[in-house]
Automatic annotation (TrEMBL):
Pathways per UniProt: Glycan biosynthesis; trehalose biosynthesis
Family affiliation: Belongs to the glycosyltransferase 20 family.
Role played: Probably involved in the osmoprotection via the biosynthesis of trehalose. Catalyzes the transfer of glucose from UDP-alpha-D-glucose (UDP-Glc) to D-glucose 6-phosphate (Glc-6-P) to form trehalose-6-phosphate. Acts with retention of the anomeric configuration of the UDP-sugar donor.
Alphabetical list of Gene3D superfamilies matching this protein: Glycogen Phosphorylase B
Keyword vocabulary terms for this entry: Glycosyltransferase, Transferase
Pfam families associated with the record: Glyco_transf_20 (PF00982)
Assembly, per entry: Homotetramer.
Protein name: Trehalose-6-phosphate synthase
PANTHER family named in the record: BCDNA.GH08860 (PTHR10788:SF106), TREHALOSE-6-PHOSPHATE SYNTHASE (PTHR10788)
InterPro entries for the chain: Glyco_trans_20 (IPR001830), Trehalose_OtsA (IPR012766)
Amino acid sequence: MSRLVVVSNRVATPGESRAGGLAVGLEAALRERGGIWFGWSGKSVREGGGELHEAREGNIRYVTMDLSRTDLDAYYNGFSNRTLWPLLHFRLDLVDYDRNTRIGYARVNALFADKLAPLLREDDVVWIHDYHLIPLASLLRERGIGCRMGFFLHVPMPSADLAAALPDHARLFSTLYAYDLVGFQTLRDVERFQDYVRLFGGGRVAGDGMLEAPGGRRFRAAAFPIGIDTDQIATEAPRALSKPTVRSLRESLRPRELVIGVDRLDYSKGLPERFRGFARYLERHGSRKRGLTYLQIAPVSRGEVAEYKLLRTELERIAGHINGSHATADWTPLRYVNRNFARGTLTGFYRIARIGLVTPLRDGMNLVAKEYVAAQDPDDPGVLVLSMLAGAAYAMREALLVNPYDLDGVADAIDTAARMPRDERIERWQALMAYLRENDIDAWCRSYLDALMFDVPRKGAGKGT
Ligand code: ADQ
């Protein structure tokens, strides 16, 4: 079996708390085949960068690299988070394009290639993750690396016209042609990528999932919707109820029901619209409104970027306004918390929440929607209110799907969820849970790696070799 090499911006090294299902799933795949997880160490140094650190656990090597502050600023804070992130989330209005950060992004990707190339063997399978590292395969190919390489985009692929609005877009997106397999979250993302390749990328759709780059190189583009560790969460959730934080939340709510939202504080997550949708519910459903308390957990992320600072201020203002208008002496309708909770605690919060509110304006997939469902009590499950603009909505049709821009629609869905009879909740939950069980994080890793190893015809290697 070929050795697996995973490359991502951040690496969950042994001893660090695992961010969640993705790290667990990738580690399982690495353990099965033996391999390397390569990426940035999380450390920035004053000058230089490129120093490697290595840790080992069983048959997995974790190789991480320091970056200089200048490189990190250009590559990560700059081009990745201020240019690509908004572009890929359909927010051209927030795209901040700067030639220097684009050059910094290319420089850091080249540094990744320089440091990774000597570690690779000809029969390795290399799996590169996300928008920080789009050009990496083409840079490795320039350094003579011939092994199978796949890419997975965790965030959405925007429509072709939006992608083409990026200055120098072809220079970036054409580097995807160096992969053997380009994976997306949903079929819609694949279609948008095909459109881009056809309309702006000089290539063509060759049929059967294959694309042909200018010059004739063929590669596959397909959808692999990411899953979660469903069984683990389902087992953990009832146990989490005895945790002191979960118990005290539960006691503080009585006799009201909980509505929960859990997101990084990011403009893609639609938090101002969600707050306003909840406010609309409070205004419109006056007689019942005092039955619900909404807890929004939103730890600050990318706090140094201006758009995120503005978002934070805006949310504080709306939250203050909602509570100022609707709170009573013994009830605060919206509890807004800017901090992280341990994964186990969150699972307990999901379990006691009657409604999970997941309304991003755009999201590659959205794992919180899946985690919320997996944590429910099978005999008395809560209801997921889910944005139709999240990748998760493509398969999770039994959720209450809403347009996150439609405040009345969000308010109505909260009301429907709050009043939904138990039988209907159980029926919807069972259908969602069956899907999550079958399409968990291990199934995702397996199907991606199978496609990369067996479905990609390569020079000198036929199907199945
Ligand atoms: P994210 O944008 O980070 O991921 P999401 O899919 O919701 O969004 O994953 C967030 C993860 O962080 C979840 O596992 C969640 O439990 C955890 N988390 C969120 N808030 C937390 C908090 N306050 N405390 C502790 N944990 C918290 C990107 C893409 C998504 C895609 C994923 C995976 O933007 O669309 O689903 O990658 O591919």
